[in-house]
TrEMBL record:
Active site as annotated: 257
Organism field: Pontiella sulfatireligans
UniProt name for this protein: Beta-xylanase
Family to which this protein belongs: Belongs to the glycosyl hydrolase 10 (cellulase F) family. Belongs to the sulfatase family.
Keyword tags: Calcium, Carbohydrate metabolism, Glycosidase, Hydrolase, Metal-binding, Polysaccharide degradation, Signal, Xylan degradation
GO molecular function per UniProt: endo-1,4-beta-xylanase activity; iduronate-2-sulfatase activity; metal ion binding
Source organism superkingdom: Bacteria
GO biological process, one term: xylan catabolic process
GO CC entries: cytoplasm
Length: 364
């Protein structure tokens, strides 16, 4: 492989539950050291764990994680510095519980980034500096005629996510985050990372943002596509278009959190009441005990097809990271539907390679 092949470790992926990484299964760590050359901490470098109270940093788990990575010769990806999720409660508020001012939040961000990036200076190759700053929604498209039923047609539009970062600091929180990270480690490669990047509106917005940052001289070196995918998403053409759009900014693309779940989409589940949820649960969880071979083969084919795209674009892609090792520990267990597991990864619950794993081996 020309690109780095990464995985993620450090959490059992359930309900934000935090698990001390080195107590993880030894079999899992052996697979990591054998099969991958790069790694991301799935949770333990997120702000809520690193700085649970203002000015109180806890690096015990992160240090232990780094030691494992370095012993195993793995390049490390730091994840994530500025995000709206998994942030500590104190971050956006003052002692009285009111929102902090722009100046205070910038200073908190600066201090967090300098402390964390500075601690691992020279040892972390990539940082996900800003995560998920772009959101999308459907709006009426006035330029299109009414549909057959006489309803207006809609289109998806992208915009900066309405997070406390944006509300309190404004759009420039993004460039400030990159500047602070670069000050703390000038050698680290700094990424913008987001999901649904195979979506046209979102990826175009992201590319525009990147161009704007580069034009201002902001130190940004790559864009990450999270890639939490399904058997039917994305289409191969969509994926190729997205890579083209991002690569045209001149930045390298990384696939940062790849997993391909085999379950049907659960969109109806979210809005359903308790009774409907009960009905849906069985329907949405068809493989509760064992997963049929044909489904595993279909998944293998999807993995093969997306990797074919990655290889074809290897001059633009510097890393592909799968979001976990084995179906035993994946965040796609119990989420979004309790009791269902999406079997999204390359190794099964007993750490044996799945058809998807074999599908990725290079033909001789
Ligand atoms: C997920 C972890 O996998 C889970 O263990 C945790 O409970 C929630 O976060 N986008 C990201 C990742 O950038 O940090 C998220 O990871 C998945 C979505």
């Amino acid at each position: 492989e020309d690109f780095l092949m990464g995985t993620a470790l450090g959490s059992r992926g359930v309900n934000h539950q935090y698990v001390y990484p080195m107590r993880q299964n030894k079999k899992e760590r052996d697979v990591v050291a054998r099969e991958f050359n790069c790694i991301t901490a799935e949770n333990l470098m997120k702000m809520e764990y690193l700085q649970p109270k203002e000015g109180f940093f806890n690096f015990d788990q992160a240090d232990e994680f780094m030691a494992f990575c370095e012993e195993s010769g793995l390049a490390v990806v730091g994840h994530a510095l500025v995000w709206h999720s998994q942030t500590p409660d104190w971050l956006f508020k003052d002692d009285a519980g009111n929102p902090v001012t722009r100046e205070v939040l910038i200073e908190r961000m600066r201090n967090h980034i300098h402390t964390v990036v500075g601690r691992y200076k020279g040892r972390i190759k990539y940082w996900d500096v800003v995560n998920e700053a772009i959101d999308t929604k459907m709006v009426v498209d006035e330029s299109l005629p009414l549909d057959e039923e006489g309803n207006p047609q809609k289109k998806r539009v992208a915009f900066y996510r309405d997070s406390p970062w944006l509300q309190i600091i404004g759009e420039d929180y993004i460039e400030l985050a990159f500047r602070f990270a670069h000050e703390a480690d000038p050698e680290a490669r700094l990424l913008y990372n987001d999901y649904s990047m195979a979506n046209r509106a979102k990826v175009e917005f992201a590319a525009g943002m990147v161009r704007g940052l580069k034009a201002k001289g902001v130190p940004i070196h790559g864009v990450g596509m999270q890639a939490h995918w399904q058997l039917d998403y994305p289409e191969i053409e969509q994926l190729q278009d997205s890579i083209d759009i991002l690569a045209a900014t001149g930045l390298k693309v990384s696939i940062t959190e790849l997993d391909i779940g085999v379950l049907p989409r659960a969109s109806e589940y979210h809005g359903a009441d308790v009774n409907r949820r009960e009905e849906l649960r069985a329907e949405l969880n068809p493989y509760s005990n064992s997963i049929p071979m044909e489904v595993l083969n279909e998944q293998a084919e999807k993995y093969r097809a997306v990797f074919e795209v990655f290889r074809k674009n290897s001059e633009h892609i510097e890393r592909v990271t799968v979001w976990g090792v084995s179906d035993r520990y994946t965040w796609k267990a119990n989420w979004p539907v309790p009791g269902r597991t999406a079997y999204p990864l390359l190794f099964d619950r007993n750490f044996q390679p799945k058809p998807a794993y074999y599908a990725l081996q290079k033909p001789n």
